[in-house]
Sequence to fold (238 residues):
Amino acid sequence: MSQLPLPKSALYICVDDDTGHRSRLEAITPDAIIVTAPAGAEKLVAAEVGSHLTVFWIDEGGRVVLPVLLEHITAGPVERWHLRPLGEPRQAGRRQHERGGGGEKMRISTLAAQPAVTFDSTLLDLSEKALRCWAPASDLAVGEELHVQVVLSTGILSHIGKVTIVRDAADGIGQHIVVTFHPLAPPTVQIIRRYLFVWGSRRARRSEEEAAAGAASADAGLVAAAHRPGRAATPARS
Fold:
């Protein structure tokens, strides 16, 4: 199997498209990969032998995703999970192109003003390079440095960045502000990557469910039409 990380590398195990639980690759066999049980494994009631899970890790191109089956759990001082791959590792997209999420409440603080001015805003989307948020109308200017803080499902993003875009919202209420981050520490990068992975997984699942619902509705319409009584033919005039 190609593209697997080296033993002892960090990876994450996702249960029901959750945020991912940190684990470590212990060994690779011809039929399975063996990992340490993720942190908090005793609370993962949905993770039992026979469960379909998702494993992902990060390489130079971004996230690599691998669907797996939990085949066996080895007890011991360090519990180990034996996972059988259900396909080949798949690159989930290059990091520089990934942007998504949004909806979380956040706080913005100015750095130039003394004392600092702090106000609430709403995250619109996020990437490893920048975030876009909605905020009430303000006198923020391009080039101004801000401190942004937002509680994501995977951790707290608290960082300093520079305003690169300020424009009025399309509905005329408030502004859309783009803040480009100063270089991020590795733990912060991981928080963002995991957040985007979960967001992308949930979006893909919703799309599949909507497509399935649309197909079911179309099939029901065809069945109903087939059983609908036709109108009696009008006798032809002589």
Q: What stands out?
A: Residues 231-238 have pLDDT under 50 and may be disordered. The helical segments are 186-227.
